[in-house]
Amino acid sequence: MKLVELPLLKTKRLTIKLLEPRDAHLMVAFRITNKIHLREWEPERSEEFYTEKFWLIQSKMTTRQFQNGVSVCLVIMDVKASRILGVCNYTNIVRGTFQACQLGYSIDHAHEGQGIMFEALQAANKYIFDNIKLHRIMAHYIPRNKRSGELLRRLGFVIEGRAESFMKINGMWEEHILTSLINRE
Ligand SMILES: CC(C)(COP(=O)(O)OP(=O)(O)OC[C@H]1O[C@@H](n2cnc3c(N)ncnc32)[C@H](O)[C@@H]1OP(=O)(O)O)[C@@H](O)C(=O)NCCC(=O)NCCS
């Protein structure tokens, strides 16, 4: 296994890093608190998803997948890293001629509308381009998810198309708007 330095990003209001085993209980708190808030925008979740056991395993997998260059799944925390405020996951990393990944994200209900996800994604996207050396970050949103569309627009993502029946969200195959941010450097 090739050892790569683990991400640790700092912004004015945030610490952004991989989920560590010692933070598994914070992830459970984030997931339970936001169960209803996130239901409309995420896949259906099993009961296990809300347990510490699940997130302990997940934290180990996240590190392994990072080391293997498969994904960069980040937790967005307050400056002191005492609470999880959200997540941003860069998955399905493809190399070769593509050099691209897919981005998914969500913020705690109580922290929505404060520019926190924008601040986090500005830093994380830069990390993905500068350190992971990808050329394209792809993000998709359901047309009625206006907050998500607006966030991506402000971050510089460009709409590239529309795909019918694209992802199974909350038990339904949903149409999505397809967007990308390209590394121009
Ligand atoms: C999509 C999602 C992450 C967007 O979060 P968000 O908080 O609206 O996004 P931003 O971080 O860009 O914040 C924008 C808001 O913060 C405000 N803001 C910007 N900078 C700010 C600052 N420094 N201080 C305070 N507020 C600020 C903006 O005016 C805007 O407010 P408004 O929504 O009242 O117009 C969030 O709605 C969410 O998690 N939704 C559920 C999951 C989901 O949909 N995921 C994406 C699936 S595609």
Describe this structure in words.
- Residues 14-179 form the N-acetyltransferase domain.
- Keywords: Acyltransferase, Transferase.
- Strand 7 (158-169) and strand 8 (172-182) form a beta hairpin.
- With 185 residues, the chain is an alpha+beta fold.
- The chain has a single domain (8-182), classed as Gcn5-related N-acetyltransferase (GNAT) (Aminopeptidase, 3-Layer(aba) Sandwich).
- It has an eight-stranded mixed sheet, sandwiched between helices.
- It has helices at 24-33, 35-39, 52-67, 116-130, 146-155, and strands at residues 8-10, 14-18, 72-78, 84-94, 100-107, 136-141, 158-169, 172-182.
- Helix 1 crosses helix 3.
- The mean pLDDT is 97.
- Helices cover 30% and strands 34% of the residues.
- The chain binds coenzyme A.
- Residues 38, 41, 105-107, 112-118, 141, 145, 147-148, 151 line the site of coenzyme A.
